[in-house]
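dumping this here so i dont lose it
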């Protein structure tokens, strides 16, 4: 493949409902769809999942766009690429910026699969025909409202319910959920809201038979999580702490978690996600694929990676309609009774609808030459 142009479609989308976590509430979502166009005019699509502000991670939208335009886009334009794995090697000299790297690499993976005439899932090595999915629910103003939302999602058949927690909205809130729904597969996500000083609170969650507690302690940490896992019965799942193959290896060796949440953007792309998958399989660590409030392109990348065998727990890839009034792909992602079918069509398995995308469009940037980057790299 030789990519002749990278387009960055910058969108501002409004979510159907506000989404509240321990670090804030979001209803507007900036989305960047990356389009990689080859010499034949075939397009592959990726999605950048960095947020507007550096809250979930150090990456944020403005910095990501600079990185894409100044470095990562020019580095692949006019390059002969025989396999998407080569993109990670091209980007290796550049530290971090995983979400930026992953968005272009994802577009290259989609393009590669289309050129091969196979699905993205097959190109990755996934064999599943369908995947189980759960749903992630943000904090509501009251526990009663949260219970209503849970009821809706249980009725819709999702295989797992995830609720956000933070200090002051944790043990008693979960107790109320269990009083109404004693048997549903339930997990909680703290988004790093606690420390080891909160050990009594975290121990108190053991009584509720939770599938896991996700990222209770500081992002990036594996030491304190290892101490925590030894003191609580609930399996610890790491999210923000797993930002590379190396961090996953360290967490597994230290016993920092019993479960890992793989987010493609957070770890640097599909190639790195596959490496983490193979490591986890070797050590019998169950995986699931977390969500980053993606639009349809990123959502379909998540479905594809979940087709790998060690993704045995339901992921966050709910229906497009869970988050968006109208998604930018046709057909949209649909979960029926907690199951999403893995497309067998070439690439991501859906068309990007430029007509739908137009209503959200803020700006399009085009990258066609690497002269500026060559100057930077040789000085």
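and the seq i came up w/
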């Amino acid at each position: 493949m030789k990519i002749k142009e990278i387009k960055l479609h910058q969108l501002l989308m409004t979510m159907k409902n506000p989404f509240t976590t321990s670090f804030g509430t979001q209803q507007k979502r900036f989305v960047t769809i990356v389009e990689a166009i080859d010499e034949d005019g075939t397009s592959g699509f990726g999605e950048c999942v960095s947020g507007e502000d550096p809250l979930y991670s150090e990456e944020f939208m403005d910095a990501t766009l600079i990185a894409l335009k100044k470095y990562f886009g020019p580095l692949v334009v006019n390059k002969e690429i025989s396999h998407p794995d080569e993109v990670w090697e091209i980007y290796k000299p550049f530290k971090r910026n995983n979400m930026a790297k992953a968005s272009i690499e994802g577009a290259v993976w989609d393009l590669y699969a289309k050129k091969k005439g196979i699905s993205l899932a097959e190109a990755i090595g996934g064999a599943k025909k369908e995947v189980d999915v759960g749903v992630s629910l943000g904090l509501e103003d009251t526990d009663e409202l949260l219970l209503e939302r849970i009821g809706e999602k249980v009725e819709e058949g999702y295989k797992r319910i995830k609720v956000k927690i933070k200090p002051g909205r944790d043990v008693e809130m979960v107790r109320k959920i269990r009083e109404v729904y004693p048997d549903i597969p339930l997990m909680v996500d703290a988004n790093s809201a606690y420390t080891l000083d909160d050990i009594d609170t975290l121990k108190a969650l053991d009584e509720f038979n939770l599938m896991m507690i996700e990222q209770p302690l500081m992002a990036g940490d594996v030491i304190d999580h290892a101490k925590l896992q030894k003191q609580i019965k609930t399996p610890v799942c790491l999210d923000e702490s797993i930002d590379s193959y190396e961090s996953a290896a360290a967490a597994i060796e230290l016993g920092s978690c019993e479960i890992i949440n793989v987010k493609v953007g957070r770890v640097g792309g599909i190639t790195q996600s596959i490496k983490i998958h193979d490591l986890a399989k070797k050590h019998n660590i169950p995986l699931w694929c977390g969500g980053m409030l993606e639009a349809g392109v990123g959502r379909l990348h998540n479905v594809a990676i979940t087709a790998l065998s060690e993704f045995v727990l339901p992921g966050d890839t709910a229906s497009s309609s869970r988050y968006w009034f109208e998604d930018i792909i046709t057909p949209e992602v649909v979960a029926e009774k907690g199951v999403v079918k893995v497309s067998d069509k070439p690439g991501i398995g859906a068309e990007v609808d430029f007509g739908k995308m137009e209503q959200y469009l803020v700006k399009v940037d085009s990258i066609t030459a690497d002269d500026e980057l060559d100057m930077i790299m040789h000085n």
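The CA atoms of residues 3 and 78 lie 5 Å apart.
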